[in-house]
Backbone:
C-alpha cells in the first residue's frame, strides 16, 4: 500500500495531506485530481482527459494498486468504502466521526482488514470481520493464524469465518447490513479489504510490457519495456530472490526502494534494485505477525520440494518469564536451503523474521541457520534461540 | 558467563541449583565441591586433591572463567564479592536479605556491573558504580554509552566516573567503604565486576596448548591439542568470523554451542562449530544494548581500515511515535564490507544487531545492507529502516 491507512484513522492525516503542498513549495508541478487518459510514446506526451498534454523526457509510472471489489449489489450505498487512497481514508475518518460510528463491518480478513480492526479499536469502534476462510491472514500457517484469531476475539472483534458477502443493503438496527451465506451483519460503515490488484491498465494501453503477475514488467533499473519509461511501486513487478521470479508484491518499503532506484537512473547515477525476499509484517493488537520468503504453495510453484515445521518457544529465557512465539520454517528438502519463515508472538516475531530475511538473502541453509551467532541475553531470548531450535529440528527431518 | 547472575538475584536460584541433582537422577556421576589437582594424560586419569583418580576415555575441560580481582587491601572483608559462580550468587543473595541491604557498591561499569545494578534495583537496592573510564560499557561507542549513563542516572544509580578503587575498609555510615582516587563510597556489600579471565591453568599445567588469548586452544570440533581432550565454554577460544582469529569471548550462547559440538564429536557424530561474529546484548532498565562484530580498535588490530558512523533513528515509523535508537556501523573502507555494529535503544536494538549479525556471517557489504529486505510495518520501523539509512550513509563516505 502506498500509505498506511491505519495512520489516517489514527489522526496522522495532516502530515500526509501536506505532501503535495510541500512539493509545490519545492517548485515541482504537482497536479492532484488530474486523470491521465493515455500516453503517446511516439510524441513523448502524457494525455490528460481535458485534451491537455504534458511532454516528458522520462516518464515514471507510479499508478499503484486498486482495492479489489467483488461484484455485489449495494456497493453504491453511502458509507461503503474500499481502501484505496488518501481521499478514501480521509472520507472514512470523517464519516466515522459524523455518524458517531459504533460498529464497522469489514469484508476481508487479510492483513489490511486486520490492521483496520486495530485502528478502529483504538478509536473505540467495534468491528465485525467477514472472511472467506476459517482463519484470518491466510498467508500464515493455520496454527499461527489461530493465534491471531484468539487475539481478535480477545479484543472483542467478531470474526465470521467461511462466509461470503452476497449483498449490502440498508440495515434495521444500524444503517447498513451485509448479507452473507452465514447470516447478516449490521454496522455504521462497511469496508472492503479483499485484496489489491496492480493498476497497470494505463501502462498496458500505452503498449508497455505487462508481466505474468498482471503488473508492469521492469528490469533491475526499474525501466519498463520502453527505455525512457520507468515504473515503481504497487503497479510494477519486483524480483523475488527466493523463487527467482518476477512478482507483484505491493508493500511500502519495496515501493520506496524502487522509487529511489528509478530516480537515480533518470538522474544519471545508475543503481539497481536487485530484489526482495518477501519480508512483511503487521501488528495485531499485542501481537507481532511477520513473514518472509515463500509459503509452501509458492515454493512448490517455484519447483522446490518444501518441508516445514512449526516451533513454539519463548522470546525470552525461561527464567525471565514466558512470551510465547510461534515460528514456522520452510526449507527445500533436497538442499536444506531456507525458503521461508513465518512468526507470530507478543514480541520478538519481527526480530526473528528480519534475521531470517537476511539469511534468505544470503542463501543460507538450515545447518548454517541452526548455528547463527545471535545477540543472546536472557531478557531477549534463550541461549538457543527459537531460530536455532527450529532450524535444527527441521534439518533433522530432511 | 556460565549462568546469568541477575537471574539468581531475581529468585531463580532453585531452578539452577537443581541441575546437579537432576543429572544424578539420570545416572550421571556429578561431583560438586570437588577440586581437580591435575591431569595425567599418559595414564588417562583426572587427579583429585584427595589422591583419588578418575579414569577417562575422553575428557572435557569446562573450567569457565574467573572474575578478575585487582590487588587491593580489604578484599578479605566479609560481604566483598566477586561474581564468579553459583555459590557466590546464592551467598550474595542471602547476605543482601540478611543484612536488609539498602546500598551496594559495584566496582566496574562493564556490562556485568550494569546488569547487577538492574537486578539490585529490581530488588529495591540502590547501587553506586565505580568505573575506571568516563562512561559505562567501554565496548560501545561513547555516544551510545552516554545514553546508557543517562539511563543509569534516571534510575537513581550513582556513577563515579574515571575512578580507581584503592582499598576496601570498614565504613562509617554503612558496613563497608570503598576508597577511590575520587572519594569514598559506602555500602552494605561490595561487588567486583571488573572482567573475567579464562580458567586455563589446569589445562596449561597438563600441557594442553594455550592460545594467544590465554584460553585453551581448540579446533572446530572443540578438540584441544590432545586428541581425546575437548574444551568448551569460557575457558577456551572460539573462531571470530570477522577478524578470522581465535579469541576468547566468554558468552553463554557460545558455550552452549561448543558444548553441543564437543558432545556430538565424543559421541561419534561429527559436528563443527565454525565460529561466531561477537553478537552480544544486555538490558539496562528500559534500554536494549547490543553489539556484533569488531570494534574499531579490534578492526585495526585485524588489519582492516575501519570507517564508522552513528545514525540516530526511530524503532517505529515517525507517524507511530518516536522510540529513539542509535546505531553505529563500522565497515572496511577498502572493501565496504561490514565489520561491526552497535545499537542502543528503548526497543529494536537487539533486532537490528541480530539482523546485522547474519549480514556479518554472510560477509555482506554496505551496498547489500543498505537495501536489505526487512519486514516493514509502521509499528516496528520506518520504510527505510535505520539499518538502511546507516549503511547507505556510511557507504557514501568510503
Residues:
Amino acid at each position: 500500500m502506498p500509505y498506511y491507512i491505519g495512520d489516517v484513522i489514527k489522526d496522522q492525516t495532516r502530515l500526509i495531506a501536506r505532501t503535495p503542498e510541500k512539493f509545490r513549495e519545492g517548485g515541482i508541478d504537482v497536479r492532484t485530481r488530474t486523470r491521465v487518459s493515455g500516453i503517446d510514446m511516439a510524441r513523448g506526451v502524457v494525455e490528460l482527459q481535458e485534451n491537455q498534454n504534458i511532454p516528458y523526457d522520462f516518464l515514471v509510472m507510479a499508478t499503484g494498486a486498486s482495492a479489489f471489489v467483488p461484484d455485489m449489489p449495494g456497493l453504491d450505498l453511502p458509507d461503503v468504502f474500499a481502501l484505496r487512497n488518501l481521499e478514501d481514508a480521509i472520507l472514512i475518518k470523517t464519516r466515522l466521526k459524523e455518524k458517531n460510528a459504533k460498529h464497522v463491518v469489514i469484508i476481508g480478513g487479510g492483513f489490511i482488514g486486520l490492521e483496520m480492526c486495530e485502528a478502529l479499536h483504538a478509536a473505540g469502534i467495534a468491528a465485525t470481520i467477514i472472511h472467506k476462510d476459517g482463519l484470518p491472514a491466510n498467508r500464515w500457517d493455520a496454527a499461527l493464524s489461530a493465534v491471531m484469531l484468539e487475539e481478535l476475539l480477545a479484543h472483542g472483534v467478531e470474526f465470521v469465518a467461511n462466509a461470503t458477502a452476497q449483498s449490502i443493503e440498508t440495515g434495521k438496527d444500524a444503517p447498513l447490513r451485509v448479507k452473507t451465506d452465514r447470516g447478516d451483519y449490521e454496522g455504521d460503515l462497511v469496508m472492503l479489504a479483499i485484496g489489491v490488484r496492480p493498476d497497470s491498465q494505463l501502462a498496458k494501453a500505452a503498449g508497455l510490457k505487462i508481466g505474468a503477475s498482471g503488473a508492469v514488467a521492469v528490469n533491475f533499473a526499474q525501466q519498463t519495456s520502453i527505455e525512457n519509461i520507468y515504473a515503481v511501486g504497487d503497479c510494477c513487478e519486483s524480483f523475488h530472490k527466493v523463487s527467482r521470479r518476477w512478482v507483484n508484491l505491493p508493500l511500502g518499503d519495496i515501493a520506496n526502494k524502487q522509487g529511489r532506484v528509478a530516480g537515480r537512473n533518470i538522474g544519471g547515477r545508475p543503481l539497481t534494485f536487485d530484489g526482495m525476499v518477501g519480508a512483511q509484517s503487521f501488528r495485531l493488537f499485542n501481537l507481532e505477525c511477520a513473514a518472509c520468503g515463500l509459503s509452501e504453495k509458492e515454493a512448490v510453484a517455484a519447483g522446490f520440494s518444501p518441508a516445514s515445521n512449526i516451533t513454539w518457544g519463548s522470546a525470552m529465557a525461561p527464567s525471565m518469564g514466558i512470551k510465547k512465539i510461534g515460528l514456522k520454517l520452510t526449507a527445500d528438502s533436497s538442499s536444506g536451503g531456507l525458503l521461508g519463515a513465518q512468526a507470530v508472538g507478543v514480541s520478538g516475531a519481527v526480530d526473528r523474521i528480519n534475521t531470517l530475511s537476511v539469511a534468505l538473502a544470503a542463501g543460507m541453509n538450515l545447518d548454517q541457520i541452526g548455528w547463527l551467532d545471535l545477540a543472546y541475553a536472557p531478557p531477549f531470548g534463550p541461549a538457543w534461540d527459537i531460530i536455532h531450535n527450529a532450524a535444527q529440528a527441521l534439518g533433522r527431518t530432511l
